[in-house]
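ugh ok fine here u go
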Amino acid sequence: MTKNKTIFLGIAATLIALHSVSAAAQEVKIATDGGYPPFNSQDSSGNVIGFEADLYKDLCKRIEKTCTMSVTDWDGIIPSLNQGRFDAIMAGMSITEDRKKVVAFSKPYADLPTVIIVNRDNELSKLNIGISDITFGEMSAEEDTALKKLQEALKGKTIAVQTSTVHQKFSESVFKDSTVQTYDTMENAGLDLASGRVDAFITDLSFLKDFAKNEQGKALVQIGPNLFGGALGEGRAMALNKNNPQLVEQFDKAIDASIADGTVTKLSQQWFGFDVTPKH
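structure:
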């Protein structure tokens, strides 16, 4: 009897261990930076909230996996992914050729313009470029003329950007006669712009709309056209480890389904106030 009991306990322990391994294999750890509203931010209790905080739950339900989202510093977010600390990143990350060299991207789940914002009291607020959009990589003569006007207007000015973003690389390559000043978070850049410490801030339209809800943000306005393409990327997507193509494929299908049934549009309207669903 004692022997049989021992065998039974051994089998039970093995089954529990196998279940634990299976559960662990189903868990997906997602990293975000927690400082990019309304894509992602933290409430007073430290919980991650925002468009991506809601979207990841929808996507993980579709692929039938348990997921967790935790905050990590933006500067180290890709190294942390490739070191295996996380399985995916959802942090408003733009798809770029440079990033494709080190991570695998899902299909985009959002796309929105980059904008230049200034303080209402700054003389730049009166700038009239006369065009609504500039798409880099396929610029018309009219867009090229508009860009040159922007470059001349910002010559000698200080432009704020968040560090290690497409906006930093874009600003340094396009506005070479301006001083590009980096910030750890967009909020800190916005605060310095509102207080007049910098002349302009290049960021997403979503940040301007969200920051405008605060007292400091009411002093900020967009100048010039909406900016798309080129160094600014090909939309926002999940970044995943190149060694896990199966997970990339699963999330691709989930993103397609979430766009098709209107979930992405619904979450867009809730968090951005406009639709960020990719158009192509």
